[in-house]
Amino acid sequence: MAHSSAKKVAFAAFIGTTIEWYDFYIYALASVLIFSQLFFPADNEFIGILGSFATFAIGFLARPLGAIIFGHIGDRLGRKKSLIITLMLMGIATTSVGLLPTFATAGIVAPILLVLLRILQGIAVGGEWGGAVLMATEHAPKGFKNFFSSFAQWGSPAGNVLALLVFSYIMRLPQDLLFDAQYWRIPFLISFVLLIIGFIARITLTESPVFIESEKQLSAVKLRESAPLIQVIKQALPLLILAIGANILSFSGIFSNTLMIGYTTLVLHVEKHVILDALFWVAIVHFITQPFMAYFSELMKAAHFLILSAILAMLSMFVLFPIINNGTQNSFIIGISILVICYSGFYGVIAGYLSHVFPVRIRYTALSISYQGCAAIFGSLIPMIGGYLIYTYQTVWYPLALFYCTLGIVSIICIYLLNRVNHFEE
Questions:
Q1: The pLDDT value given to residue 219
Q2: What pLDDT, on a 0 to 100 scale, did the predictor assign at position 46?
Q3: Mean pLDDT throughout 126-137?
Q4: What angle do CA 421, 423, 426 make, to 5 degrees?
Q5: Measured distance CA(299)–CA(282) in Å, rounded
Q6: 83-122: b (≥16 Cβ within 10 Å) or e
Q7: How far is Cα 163 from Cα 307, in angstroms, rounded to an integer?
Q8: How much is the pTM?
Q9: How is the chain split among helix, strand and coil, in percent rounded to 5?
Q10: Average pLDDT in the 86-109 region?
Q11: How far, in Å, CA of 398 to CA of 332, rounded?
């Protein structure tokens, strides 16, 4: 595969996942910061907060459905077709959130519509990640598989930077502009512009050469296959379970954003805009660091690099809290950045590593379910358990650090076991 073609695909994967994650992060930030006041009864703050977080969690629960639907499309009709559909679905759903009526004007209809759009977002993200990773990996030249696959993962910090940049602006607006003049809609409406950019980037791509070759071989033997999901369950269920476990630390990124907002505002009593500004600079650090970490990973076995990164991330938790407890914006930037630098190596490489655990014909489905199944279980549980620990122990941060380490240990064990099986290399 020519390097120029591989670079084009990697760039398109980066652009597409940046847009997908921008959409994801603006919803996450809105759930924490403003949705309780917009889509739920104004006279009951508890119901509003609970409801906004519930709609956020529903998106995680919808992801496995997207993994199954678009995994089937990607394994049978092609990676490119699946990726174009997921991008369109995500962009339209997010833009539509910016057009919704609020509870004050539509009553119970408003949160119902919000939930439906959140489900569509979850389905889109569920199908997006696996396809973006595979397009980048299967086009990549030999010896650079992890590096090129990391471009799909690179979209996460890039989307986070964009989302935080927009929200840092709108959260400084006076309340009458934010809510009465409806400036809160701006982050969601911007998604339509990004959707057009992403569509142009993806429509010009060539299909995965690995997928094309697999199709030729299948046609030559005229083999009738069962659905990819059935094949995954019959042929690769133990690998799928281990892949879900290996992915757990990928979702510990929730610690560096959502839980840090909760910890700094609830325990350290800082203003929301202070931690949002700090997280913006942390996202910049993540964005800069991740490709270098992924490039460096090519110097050793991917499994060894992942285990080393996980250990460093676990140790960084015991540096993070003593620093951020100083309560200043600079301490937040430094402390959380240390965690993110250690974690970025794991996050950047895990996708490419797991893509070679499964055979080509079921790879999109298996890879997507492993990640999105983990998202549905742990992506929703981690903020709930972490929030409980913050609320219960307040300034005693050791339980939260030990919880993070538990997640890391599970991932390390699963990666160690996966490394003992044969991987599929093209």
A1: 67
A2: 64
A3: 86
A4: 165
A5: 26
A6: bbbbbebbbbbbbbbbebebbeeeeeebbebbbebbbbbb
A7: 30
A8: 0.85
A9: 85, 0, 15
A10: 89
A11: 18
